[in-house]
Amino acid sequence: MKTLRYLPVFPLLIALSVSCGDSNEPDVTTVADLVGAWTATKFEVTDPSGTVLPVPVDLVGPFVGGSLDITISSNGSFTGTFRLPLGSNPEPVAGTISIQGNVLTIDFTTGLDDPISGQFVLNGDVLTVTGTNLSFTYLGETITGASVILVMER
Fold it and tell me: Within a 10 A sphere around the Cβ of 40, how many other Cβ atoms?
């Protein structure tokens, strides 16, 4: 008889354990999560042929002195400046950012010629995009099949 007395409590315990448990749904990052001002801390381009860039080059690294700063709006549009390495003047950039599943695409309408697209990770205020098999024009030379690692901080 003691067992029957606790029987009405079981459904309540089951409901509480289901509603309080962690969700198994993966976190979904949207463009709205990217709103704000971002500065590139790494923009590494690797030329698989080695003809244009014989080694991977970090376009915003401390030794080359380039920069990329953008501000992203809630609709995915962005504006900012990009400065090529070795002391060139900052040039305006603009375009849109879109997310499709786990792929982020930065499509430039002003500034850089080719989009950057690849898998991404948003970890707090650090965004990392890893693109492969991309084409870039760098200092008048076309790099085909390039890989890019872009790290930006908000």
Answer: 21
